[in-house]
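dude i think i finally got it to work??
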Amino acid sequence: MHAYLLELASLMAVFSFAIVSPGADTAMVMRQAMVHGRREAILTSFGIGTSLMFHVTYTILGLGLIISKSLLLFSIIKWAGAVYLIYMGVMALRAGKTDLDPVADGAEPARQSALRAFGLGFLANALNPKPVLFFLSIFSALVAASTPGTVKFGYGLVMATCLIAWFVGVSFFMTTPRMRAAFSRASKWINRASGMVFIAFGLKLAATKAS
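look at this
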């Protein structure tokens, strides 16, 4: 048990940097929070965490190694992810000013469905082949081959839980009255900035090469 705890601590020491490092997932949650609200951002956070378990599971099963060594599979996932992020970027650029005050026009703003909010987070992470290389590398370097699959899966659950907790925290922070008011004033430019961020990450993903 002590060896497993040591492995988990080592994994989390590395993974903690990946959690707080700004990326497409962070941009997605922040925009969901500011444009659609706390509920949608939290659902997107759970989508990202669930997608992380998707990556961990096939890494444990050995499929991650196959994907990382197959140029065709890697390219399919890479280009699907790049197109998705660029599409999200274009939609954000076209969004213009976002009115967060439902009283202004006398109608409640259209709410994003739970499935769509969850799916945005899941797809943004699932269609990114970079986690394949990340989890393969850290599991190979920090987890013994003799560690049971169930224990490795437990590591993944802990990592996914921490990731969800981080993004839920981001969701709460970005939906405070002060942040909402600031976004309402600058929503046009924030939408443009987030759109360019999504497109930039999409182009960066398109340039990623399998190792």
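Residues 24-97+105-206 form one domain.
im so relieved honestly
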